[in-house]
Amino acid sequence: MSDNKLIKAIKEKGQTMEAEMSFFDHLEALRWHLIRAAIAIVIFTIGAFYFYDFIFNTIIMGPSKPDFWTYRMLCKLGDLLHSDGFCITKININLINTEMAGQFTLQINSCLLIGVMLGFPYLLYEIWLFVKPALHDNERKAATGFVFYATFLFILGIMFGYYVITPESINFLSGFTVSNQIQNLFDIDSYLSSVATLTLATGIVFELPILVYILSSLGILTPKFMRSGRRYAVIVILIISAVITPTPDMMTMTIVSIPLFVLYEVGIVVAGVVERRKLAREAAL
């Protein structure tokens, strides 16, 4: 009797050790995926150092110049509407550096941000390679195109944040004063932080349909739930728009909220597709 208990205990211990080894094997695999993604980000960061003059003068400082693409398009829109209120011919922004190593850290931080943005699609690809072996064949087919769609939405959000939200915010904040006795002098780190935050935050927010797809696949979200919660979603979207845009004017807030409403409706469609696929698989079984 004791021999049977001993054999059973040895078997259970062996199964436990096998599970632990499997867990650590997964951790090891994930570590290498993350290392490769980090190497890609480092390579893009080094490339950003090489092209830094163009990146800083054209991309980072672009929204602070009156000849920026967004301001030129607003001027054309004003001409079509026969209104001078849309045209922006001057940006009241004066940048300073208050730290000894400020400009050095500026170059490092800005290059790292560019490296993260450019390396984000490859990071998604490595995550997909890590998750893919654990999926069934039907799940792999359903998730085909994950990297493409996630990258597309991220780039779309980055472009929207950079060309719409960032210039509108910079134009408003640079000219906002509470008293004529106070002169606006902006630290260069504050400027870079504002541009990076507005751009990256919008890119992340535009991943909403991907998040909906994942939650729907896990059975947490359904299209019925999303439709019934549309009124609450409107409030949440308006709050997110107010947080993303530090400007109090309703026009900018409306411009930001419209794409978020569209993304929410796209999320409902995505949840519906996932639900129909689940029902079809259940019917087949």
UniProtKB/TrEMBL annotation:
Its main location: membrane. One of its GO terms (molecular function) is proton motive force dependent protein transmembrane transporter activity. One of its GO terms (biological process) is protein transport by the Tat complex. It comes from the Bacteria. It is a multi-pass membrane protein. Pfam families: TatC (PF00902). The keyword Protein transport applies. The chain crosses the membrane at residues 34-52, 104-125, 146-165, 195-220, 232-248, 254-274. It is found in: Cell membrane; Membrane. The keyword Cell membrane applies. Keywords: Cell membrane, Membrane, Protein transport, Translocation, Transmembrane, Transmembrane helix, Transport. GO terms for cellular component: TAT protein transport complex. Forms a complex with TatA. Belongs to the TatC family. Part of the twin-arginine translocation (Tat) system that transports large folded proteins containing a characteristic twin-arginine motif in their signal peptide across membranes. This is Sec-independent protein translocase protein TatC. It comes from Mucilaginibacter pedocola.
